Amino acid sequence: MKSLLQDLNADWQSFKASQKAEMDDLRAAADDANAKLAAMQMGGAPGSGGKAMGLTPSAATDFTDFLKAGKMGEGLQPRADMRSGSSADGGASIPKQISAVILDQMADLSPMRQLATVERATTSDYSKIVGLRGASSGWAAETDPRSITDTPKMGEVKPTMGELFVYAEATQWVLDDSQFNLEAWLADNIAVEFAVKEGTAFFSGDGSSKPTGFLTAPQSADDDSSRAFGTLQTVEAGAAAAVDTDDLVNLMMAVRTPYRARLSECAWVMSRTTASFIRKLKDADGRHLWADSLAAGQPPTLLGYPVMEAEDMPAIGAGNVSVAFGNWRAGYLIVDRTEMRMLRDPYTRPGWVRFYTHHRVGGDVMDSNAIKLLAHPAS
Question: Measuring CA to CA, which of 61, 67, 95, 108 is 20 to 30 A from 88?
């Protein structure tokens, strides 16, 4: 009996030891998860060390050291000057965590980044091949001869690119102030400015060292069957200074069914003043065409499709294009050639530190059948 009790006690002690080890592991995992959650929740507070930006502590420390004193920590990639292939001279790539946040903020501010196809280019000589279909077919009996049919055609889109930059400066005293949130300052200033410039280029850029906007693409009243590739179709409004229900229906129905069927990729685009006019329109039964969303954060709809406001769209007026509608995912292409990079310059102006932040971006119409424009007559 004594031997049996000793064996039972040994088993019990072994069981307790194994349970304690498992509990210690669980507590460690819980502590780690709580620490990560706390780091996420602390974002935005002064001196948060980059947690608001989703930075790891080491990346935040390295980047802050670079901004304040030009120190190159292991978390920063050595960066050449503004020319490709040069030797390192003190520049640095913005950490991927910050670069990603800046692009996310631009997506909130620029409707085109929400709507269009956005791709990463690995070379400046970037092109996109668009299938134009055009294949023909025929019927034949069992022993009938078969003739050669038409071959599907292909179109090439080469988005025009340019370097978008911000050249900001701050005093060394401000950078030395421990209460100054460097990451938030960088994100807020660059994100807003880049969003404004990009948004304008995606709408009306002339393609000279910048994206080509869809409003500057060739335009024609011809339909999809006869219009040249790369040319957008215009649908004429009934009046020079007004939009009515028929105009909107005609514009929407000019987009062929396969494009409109992808509801998540289609949207109306117009300025705020145009939206204020259109949201008052009613159908024959007195119901508003415009429907505000019941879900928070969701855009209103017009004839069943979401509406995106963009101040880069012209207002209603003689000779203007006031409304665009289509499948933007198929219709417009945005290309990011480089990530955002920063060059620190503490020498040009003593007592001040200048930060040259830049990246290359391009854009152009991709499938010209996917976007339609409402054009007002000249008088």
Answer: 61
